[in-house]
Amino acid sequence: MAGIGTAGTGTTDVRQYLRGLAVFAGDLPDFDPDAAPDRPEALFLDWLTGAVEAGVREPHAMTLSTVGADGTPSARALLLKNVDRHGWQFAANAASPKGRDLAANPVAALSFYWPQQARQIRVTGPVAPEPAGNSAADFLARPPGSRAEAVAGRQSQPLHDVRELERATELALERVEREPGLVVPEWTLYTVRAERVEFWQADKQRRHTRLCYLREGAEGEGWTRGRLWP
Ligand SMILES: Cc1cc2nc3c(=O)[nH]c(=O)nc-3n(C[C@H](O)[C@H](O)[C@H](O)COP(=O)(O)O)c2cc1C
To answer: Could you say which residues bind FMN here (predicted)?
Structure first.
């Protein structure tokens, strides 16, 4: 198909261009919600391994949505660090904008979309920082370049001169090599204790299948689940 026209009607061209793009193309996997496991992390891991096998690139990249102190929402991509019965984990600098959002409003939404399978997963719940030892272990498991980036710091602040970044990264890398046990104190492993987890499977006839897990019970260790209208 032709690209977006730049002359003439402008907006209409973009509208038509977008309308012409394929959606939910190719073979889609089956999803039988009646056969789903009792716990959402079990189904998540089942879908994640399915995504890897289907060749989804970076299936562990997700969108983290947060809310700032003034109520402004923010979303950005992040890597998933772990999933178990305690929740979904990611790591970030607590001094970054997302870290400040989480300090002001310790709740988050995570969303995954795997286009090859037309699958979406949405996770929401309160967020808590892990103890410093767990965050330090996560930091030290990162490759030297990633640690150096965090040591250089100032994530999301305006960059006025790219040479400043090059110099700071070089110095940070030297420091990481000199001090292999160095940990950035703001580096934080966060856990989203999911309250709601929704699995969405596209259907070419638009009868999409949605299965929603909700946490329940006095101890909050149980889950109910049910289907949603598409
Ligand atoms: C695929 C992908 C993975 C990313 N993983 C992380 C991550 O694990 N931690 C992180 O702090 N930023 C990660 N980033 C960068 C963030 O999207 C974001 O630009 C950065 O954290 C600053 O966000 P903030 O200004 O909202 O705090 C990733 C970006 C992409 C595209």
So the answer is: 76-81, 98, 120, 155-156, 200, 210
Q: pLDDT tens digits for 188-219?
A: 999 999 999 999 999 988 899 999 999 997 77
Q: What is the CATH number of domain 38-142+187-228?
A: 2.30.110.10
Q: How confident is the model at residue 2 (pLDDT cuts 50, 70, 90)?
A: low
**Residue with CA at minimum distance from ligand 1 atom 12:** 78
Q: Determine whether the shortest distance from the Cβ of 193 to ligand 1 is under 6 A.
A: no
Nearest protein Cα to ligand 1, atom 22: 156
Q: Where exactly are the structural domains of the chain?
A: 38-142+187-228
More confident residue, 216 or 4: 216
156 in contact with ligand 1, CB cutoff 6 A:
yes
